[in-house]
Amino acid sequence: EDVYRTQLRALLRASAFGDARVMVPLVTCVDEIRAVKTLVKRYMVEFDREGVAYNPDMQIGVMIETPAAALIADYLAEEADFFSIGTNDLTGYTMAADRGNDRVRYLYSTYNPAVLRSIRSVISAGNAAGITVGMCGEAAADPLLIPLWIAFGLGEYSVPTTSVLATRKQIFSWSKADADALAAKAMGLRTAEEVFDCLQAAKR
Known about the structure:
Blueprint lengths: L1 H13 L7 E3 L5 H21 L9 E5 L2 H5 L1 H5 L4 E5 H9 L17 H17 L2 E5 L9 H7 L3 E2 L6 H9 L3 H11 L5 H10 L3
Parallel strand pairs: 1-2, 2-3, 3-4, 4-5
Helix pairs in contact: 1-2, 7-9
């Protein structure tokens, strides 16, 4: 909490001057997001006493990057103001594969049906709860995967500045109907290789 106190108070101070938001990383259970919200309220009371300005409506969201968070995304959506899907870690944790380890790197693939199903369910839970669902990580800018994100209903893409134009071009090249049709086909496949080949064949 000592570290969180410094960081959360700093974010609260910044919220008086712009759109500062809190995104809680590595969440695995509802208790964790609730604990952060409790701390934020405590520091707001402290700032009220100290006469420090802050935005009382500062948003608190969850980084979905653990299988546990993905499995309870519907519960977390009731507590969070927004989601951001961290595809790099979510892929690694879901596949129990460290992409930096040559012995298991072959398992690390966002094209794997287990990863794609997980991402789809997270986006669905967030949309059902009416909160914004974003995505960061390499997969957010992957041109082969973008039609799937469109079909799943992803709301925001966080990509490197060098990928903004290419990502935007890919998004605009797909209609929702075409993306839905491709997703229905891809999500019926069984292996990462089959999914990759399917998306590669449909590349625009």
